[in-house]
Amino acid sequence: MSAARWRGTLIYTGTLATIGTVAFARFGPLAQAEAPATAAGASSGSIGGAAPSVVGAPGSTSVAPGTGTDGSGTSATDPADPQTGTPQAETVTVVGSVAQTRYGPVQVQVTFTGSRLIDVRTLQAPSSHPESAQISARATPLLAREVLAAQSASIDTVSGATYTSEGYRESVQSILDQRG
Amino acid sequence: MRGALVVGCLLVVAFWWSGTPAAAGATPGGAATGAGELAGLLAAFLVCAQLLLIGRVPWFERAVGFDRLVAWHRSLGTSVVLLVLTHVALMVVGGALLDRQTPWGEAVSILTTQPEMVSAFVGTGLFVLVGATSARLARRVLSYEAWFVVHLSVYVGIYLTFGHQIAAGAHFVADPVARAVWTALYLATAAALLTWRVLVPLLAHRRMLLRVEHVVPEAPGVVSVWLQGRAVDELEARGGQFVLLRFLVRGHLTTAHPYSLSMVPTAHRLRVTVAALGDHSADVARLRTGTRVLVEGPFGRFTADAARGHRSLLVAGGAGIGPIRALAQELVARGHDVVVVHRAHDVAGLALGRELTGVPGLRYLALPGRRAQLGYDPLDREHLAAAVPDIAGRDVFVCGPESMTAAVVDVARALGVPRRAIHHEELSLA
């Protein structure tokens, strides 16, 4: 009888310990491995970036973020000296600023040929909650397509991904602003 | 049983593991959220286990026994409610860390932005209410009926919280297979409950049309209720078992109570003997002839099958004589050598004693009198050994008040009865 009295509490304590152990086993090694990487690759310059691991949308490679301290920068992908290339055909990739949303940072990279937007990639999208990752995975390809179609930051909000859409617009706009 | 529970929990953990990217735990907030999800998954799984434990599932009843299932249900209930609260706390704190919000702000934003969260919130409230009313302290104050009605609301709570698992649960949103399996788990649980807690009793009722035949006073505060119906023997009830009865009359409708059979049911009759102690039991004495009765069961493993040998000692205290009387009947019918020791406060309290005297193969030993008046305990080591000298070679069945049962078990152990030859059952439903 007396053993059974506290069995419920014991089971709970045991379960809690299990949850802690399992969570540590799952997350522990990563927290140690990731910590220095986060420090080194602190690209965004934002305060306490929510997701240090850059989980891009499908189709995007995790391109090293830009060099600017404000989180934006320009890099020419054309290996040739830009001066020697044909001015019209100059291909430039610009990394946008990090837009903070309530679900996490959004950062976009746009590749231009001349003044034409030819490629849009998502460097960061909300992924801290697994739900957010789901939403991002669905929304970012649509947003990228919209940007290409509009050739500007005037894009429609993807339903169910209001914040991500806003962040996307902001990051794309920062690129367009840089390009003048 | 315990093994199945552990395996189930391990499967849930494995499912969580596979669905949680290690990257999610890179921040304290992400790790807290991940752990919160695991707590939630485990709680949701254990909820189903909880329902099945008290779902009158025949295989569980046979394998474990109703009393231990109820005991497990009670223990596990604590864990489930605490796990639900842990889940909520971790999700809110984790989310607050991720969003750099205050926990309050995060709680509000979870409620307003995530699907099915408001109903989940209400459902959680019901869980907590059910948990709180089942705490030992609260149970002392609450009547069985009030507790039971509150307990029923947990079904609403489960229904309300199911939505958010499927609609907002990170592990289910993107995975149709997981969603299907999880839904199937809940549907199967619901089907089991409907079958064994609703359908089977109702069908049995239609078949048996059980009614109160008459109520017979057996001793001060002890009455027997005779029930009559068709094909009662189809219940296959055994001596020592109990049934859940719901008298279809005002005041009894909402709750089914456990009653021990005080004789092996015949083709058309069964009898339960009740100590008229609580409000409810006292009402039983006033039941009218012809009152319809719903029966569930039989339950319990306190039967002749538990006997290891052919000689038994049955010790009854107070109303415990009911199941002992039925058990003695069955053991005698099997040709066992049976001794019944019957304790009561006084001679008048020796309910059903008449039925046990003069039975061939049965020695009936009435031990009336309060310990204070006798100056000794007739069930202590010395007296029991004198009354039943060959006790060490017998199976010992004990039924009576908890303290008496515990004392007799100790004495029997001290007199050399092996642990496995001592049989007793907690006669408590809640």
TrEMBL record, chain A:
It comes from Cellulomonas uda. SMART domains: FMN_bind. One of its GO terms (cellular component) is membrane. Residues 102-179 form the FMN-binding domain. GO terms for molecular function: FMN binding. It comes from the Bacteria. Residues 57-89 are annotated as: Disordered. Residues 57-79 have a biased composition (Low complexity). InterPro entries: FMN-bd, TonB_box_CS. Pfam families: FMN_bind. This is FMN-binding domain-containing protein.
